[in-house]
Design a protein that fits this description.
about 65% helix, globular, mainly alpha, 14 helices
């Protein structure tokens, strides 16, 4: 009974024949998620304020004391609008839809527990990094196994700029896929440090993967672009559209000065979703280009930690790198908009590589 939502109406009622088309359902999913966000956002903010679910601010780093107490866990708004929209407009017989929904929900629960721990303790220390990484890895390995166990799956990788270079990983594809998902999730999590900073690149990446997913699931387009055809991948475009709609609705409340923060419940889930989509459509090596902002944020932390541990010196004034620019005196809005611009450029670069082989 759960499966009989909007998609089956295409075959039952002639007037709804348009529901057959992925393009229509992608647009409808985007608008549905946006509408839900607008409707649910204000009461959610009021509920979080009543519950005093405020964001603890770190004592070190740039002065963000004015933001202390702003409701966090705003990622719940994105998840609600995203998942409801996906369930309404997707073909729920498609296993790819369930895989990406599963990882999104799993990482969302993990992020919620982390946020709850921070609020309960009244500081920015949530679940330990090791415990969080462990659960991220286990969930991501589950995705890798689910993909690898598909009889139609082949472990050949698609490498940008190289048409005939397709390395075969075999069973090693499972940990490789898990690494991609975990790294992307943590990259988005580290990017979420300023009002609107993370959600902009997330939406741009989702838009890029929307086009890539549709292309990968279409035999003719995939052949023309010389990319791997993945049967059923086109339905992931609907998920990407819903993510964009939910992200736009969230940004309405997250734009500076933010009324609502994303929290780990949003950043871990959104990053996990993007990494999983990249794996499912077999564009793992395009992901570092599309999500270059997330890569830069993650690498800045790794470089800072390694440098300080082995040399006692810091490469950046503060990591993640957006705090480095704050320390240089850049205004918060300038950092956010410039990161969005760079993200949009990277998305265009990634799409351009499809014919540069």
């Amino acid at each position: 009974m759960f499966y009989h939502l909007l998609y089956p109406l295409a075959s039952e009622i002639g007037a709804f024949n348009v529901f057959r088309y992925i393009t229509f359902r992608t647009g409808a999913a985007t608008l549905t998620a946006l509408f839900i966000s607008f409707m649910v956002g204000p009461p959610l903010i009021r509920a979080l304020e009543r519950l005093r679910v405020g964001q603890p601010i770190r004592e070190i780093g740039p002065d963000h004391k004015a933001k202390e107490g702003t409701p966090t866990m705003g990622g719940l708004l994105i998840l609600l609008s995203l998942l409801v929209s996906v369930f309404l407009w997707s073909n729920l017989d498609n296993r790819f839809v369930w895989i990406v929904v599963g990882i999104t929900a799993g990482y969302g629960i993990l992020g919620f527990l982390d946020d709850y721990s921070k609020v309960k303790r009244g500081n920015s220390a949530g679940i330990s990094a090791r415990m969080k990484l462990l659960w991220q890895t286990l969930l991501a390995l589950g995705v890798g196994i689910a993909i690898y166990s598909d009889p139609s799956f082949d472990a050949e990788l698609s490498v940008p700029f190289f048409k005939n270079f397709t390395p075969h990983l075999g069973v090693l594809y499972v940990p490789f896929a898990a690494f991609v998902i975990v790294a992307t999730s943590n990259g988005v999590n580290l990017t979420d440090g300023l009002d609107g900073l993370a959600i902009g690149p997330v939406m741009i990446a989702a838009g890029t993967f929307l086009l890539l997913a549709y292309a990968a699931g279409h035999v003719g387009i995939a052949d023309y672009l010389a990319i791997k055809y993945v049967s059923g991948a086109g339905h992931l475009a609907i998920f990407c559209g819903a993510l964009i709609g939910g992200g736009l609705g969230f940004l309405w409340f997250n734009a500076s000065p933010a009324q609502l923060f994303m929290g780990d419940v949003g950043s871990l889930a959104m990053g996990g979703a993007l990494g999983t989509i990249a794996v499912l459509i077999r564009q793992e090596f395009l992901l570092p280009i599309v999500g270059g902002i997330f890569v830069a944020e993650l690498l800045s932390v790794i470089i800072q930690v390694v440098s300080f541990r082995f040399t006692g010196r810091r490469v950046f004034l503060m990591a993640p790198i957006h705090h480095h620019f704050e320390k240089l005196g850049w205004a918060e809005q300038k950092i956010v908009v410039r990161f969005w611009i760079v993200s949009a450029i990277l998305g265009l670069v990634a799409l351009s590589t499809l014919k540069l082989r």
